[in-house]
Please model this.
Amino acid sequence: MDFLVKWISNVPVFAVPFALAALGLILTEKSGVLSLGAEGFMLMGAMAGVGAVIVTGQPLAALVIAAIAAAVISLVFAALVVVLRVNQVIAGLAMVFLCQGLTSLIATTEGWTSRAIVGLAKLPIPGLADIPVIGRIAFQQDLVVYLTIPIFIAVQWFLNRTETGLRLRAVGENPEAADSAGVSVALYRTGAIMAGAALVGLAGGYLSVAVAKIWVDGMAGGRGWIAIALVIFARWHPWRALLGAVLFGAIEALIPRVAAIGVQVPQYFMLMTPYVATLLVMIWAAMRGNVRLDEPGALGRPHVREERR
Amino acid sequence: MPSAAPWCTMASRADADTPAGAAMPPPRGRGLGRFNLEIRQHVSPLRQTLVLLGGLVVGLVATAIVLMLAGVGLSGIYQEFVLGIFSNRMSISAVLVQAAPLLVVGLSAVVAFRVRFWNIGIEGQMIFGSIFATFVAINDIGPESLRLPLMLVAAALGGMLWILVPAVLKLRLGINEIISTLLLNYVAFNYLLYLLYGAWKDPRSSFPNSEQYEPFERLPMIGWENVSWALPLALVLAVLIWWLLNVSRFGFYARFVDANPKMAAAVGVPIAFVTLAAALMSGAVSGIGGFVVSAGIEGRMTQSFFLGYTFSGILIAFLARNNPLIAILVALFVGVLFVAGQSLQVFYQIPGSMVQLIQAIIVISVAASEFFVRHRVHWVRGGG
Model:
């Protein structure tokens, strides 16, 4: 019982980075831009978050800075895919490696690498936190965990209930039609890339500021890629992505627990599980039917007004 | 209209240019003018090359700026990237040594990209190539004279095995190979650590390396500085792959699949077979890349021998326009970057990640320059 409560109460902390990153990716991809740079934006957020904590001492401000840093670097991506119409796969991969190099370079020269920081504090909710079991699981988390559900509601509402969200989806489904209706494809795609990257950056900042409380090179450890897989698994539905994120959070939270109760599994095999699970989830999603039916119609396709299609 | 006075309004020009009564849409812009884009229908190879070289130059200038920001002066850049490399045999041989595995992974990327298979799992395949080769080495499989060829074949099989799952998943279920090959890098890496911290730990030093290969398990030197047979091996692979992709029937099929898969299917090209074969070959070549690093440079399997090769492979294939022979030149260029990067690390305390950053900047600037290959941009004055 104690094992279960400890495990489940750790799930939200591990699920939040996946959830926010997947949500950011959905936002970007709904505009028809394939965002393979997620791993890079996550690293950017994580590095900026730790740097901001070291400089300002404010974990909450650091999370905002993490989101801003990722949004700023995503402008390079936007310039490449929206203005210069570069192949989105090449541009996304280049962004990952650009951010890997840049974050490592900045953190090393500033002396931020492997430096323990005061992370984001837990925020027990008075009264509710003392309820047995449920209190520990749901009401002794940090602020970002509490905010994740409202953020999901806000993005869902924005995409499905506002005119801007409708236009954004139109740009992703059929940019030519949206363009002839007077919607600026370039503007909406740039906005979607930046907003999405901000969420991915927030996820990265949360990873370093709230979970690891330290920066090491490449610390996103493939979580950006897992988030991309989650979006496919969720078929671009935010709530399903949240469900997937909780699943992966549960797997990640289980890894240290298994060793703690003395089950003999080589640790390196435990560390493989998130990646193997991602593959299995993708296989499962593909077996259930063609994923392409649910993806935004113009995903990965640059909009070239001068070309007839 | 060069004779028109600057204050001449757009409206009067429009009147002059169009027949009376033609309906004119209201002009949109108001300022000085706007950029007009035109798609080029035909681009000469010369022009294409020049623009891409221009992109490369822009990337190198951006690199120089980043290096100057990091505290390396212009003279330092000249010293490290030009003088330090080409003035002595030692560093030229260092470039050649480094270029061999770079060329091999570049070729792996070329083969895969020719059939639009995005192999981002080069590092994982290198790891399994090296694991298989090391297995042959530490278990003393086969006679000593055949040990190296056996290790080479084992490495190719290991790399092939590691790409088999993503390739089959893509062909059978349509699962995106970018994500599956990349995820398997992490699995392979953890398996490597499992071996190196467990059963395969060096019994003599108890460091997390495999035990050192015997002399006959290492690629011999060619007799010039410390260049080993890894380089000739890589060059032979380049020529073989060039033949395969540009001369053989398989290469013709691959070009067909790349250009228009639907058409290829309609005329009876075995698309699934061609894609699978190219993917497996790409994995095998990456596996050989792992063998080249372990048996040609380090003489054992270390825990980080593969780092950075995925992106370098993609970069080489991209800059070489998927041409195996041009890849030789590009691999030498990237080899210079690597060697200069190591020297910057020693003399300027610049982290090794600088090399990665430089590669990313170059890819971005060259990819961006393609815009000017495909489009004609001109400035239209006036507009309101």
